[in-house]
From TrEMBL:
This is Cation transporter. It comes from Limnobacter profundi. It is a multi-pass membrane protein. Keywords: Ion transport, Membrane, Transmembrane, Transmembrane helix, Transport, Zinc, Zinc transport. Residues 24-202 form the Cation efflux protein transmembrane domain. It comes from the Bacteria. The keyword Transmembrane applies. The chain crosses the membrane at residues 23-43, 55-75, 82-102, 114-134, 154-171, 177-195. Its main location: membrane. It is found in: Membrane. The keyword Transit peptide does not apply. It holds the Pfam family Cation_efflux.
């Protein structure tokens, strides 16, 4: 879920096993791909909950990138990377809220079949990543958090599947809008936490 975006930005430098690194690469590609799929599908189907769910994939893709590229670097570099990620996540979250407001005003009903199919695909992707990371679920705090975040993200996918079903059943856009507002708010809250922590760490390195 979006709140998981802080799971492993600020761990101390550590060595990463070659196998674990390969798994992180696969997880990065899967999450980045699903981010693109959900954004494109959300816009096509008129579903803001799909757009909001894509925040999970963006946040996780950024986390895996941080783990792969900057985790062993200086704290100041990791903090700057976290600042960029937090700002981007927050801007995208605000954009989803703005689009939700627009959709509320227009009253357009999203296409539930596309919502449901893409949400199920996202659920499968998150479960697959969680299974790949399962071996390292009892490793250090960084490894544990990576696995837990992938596992918990499935909750957001289930929420979108439920919203799609309710849209089809009620003929109303409200389920889609409600899930979008909840998930976008979680994403913005996570972004604030990331930025605040990154600023504290940058201040520590400048002392």
């Amino acid at each position: 879920m979006p709140g998981c975006s802080t799971c492993h930005d600020h761990q101390p430098a550590q060595s990463v096993s070659p196998t674990y690194k390969k798994v992180l690469w696969v997880a990065l590609v899967v999450n980045l791909g699903m981010f693109i799929v959900e954004v494109a599908s959300g816009l096509k189907a008129g579903s803001v909950s799909l757009l909001a769910d894509s925040l999970d994939f963006f946040g996780d893709a950024a986390n895996y990138a941080v783990s792969l590229f900057v985790l062993g670097m200086a704290l100041s570099i990791r903090a700057k990377a976290a600042l960029v990620k937090g700002a981007t996540l927050g801007i995208f979250g605000l954009g989803v809220l703005a689009y939700t407001t627009y959709r509320l005003w227009t009253g357009q009903i999203p296409e539930p079949l596309t919502m449901g199919v893409v949400a199920v695909l996202a659920l499968v992707a998150n479960v697959a990543v969680a299974l790949m990371l399962y071996k390292w679920r009892e490793g250090d705090s960084n490894m544990q958090s990576v696995w837990l975040c992938s596992r918990n993200d499935a909750i957001g996918n289930v929420a979108v599947v439920a919203a799609a079903g309710l849209v089809a059943w009620t003929g109303s856009a409200w389920p889609d809008l409600a899930v979008a507002v909840l998930m976008a708010t979680l994403g913005i809250t996570a972004a604030r936490t990331i930025i605040a922590q990154a600023w504290r760490e940058l201040n520590q390195t400048s002392v």
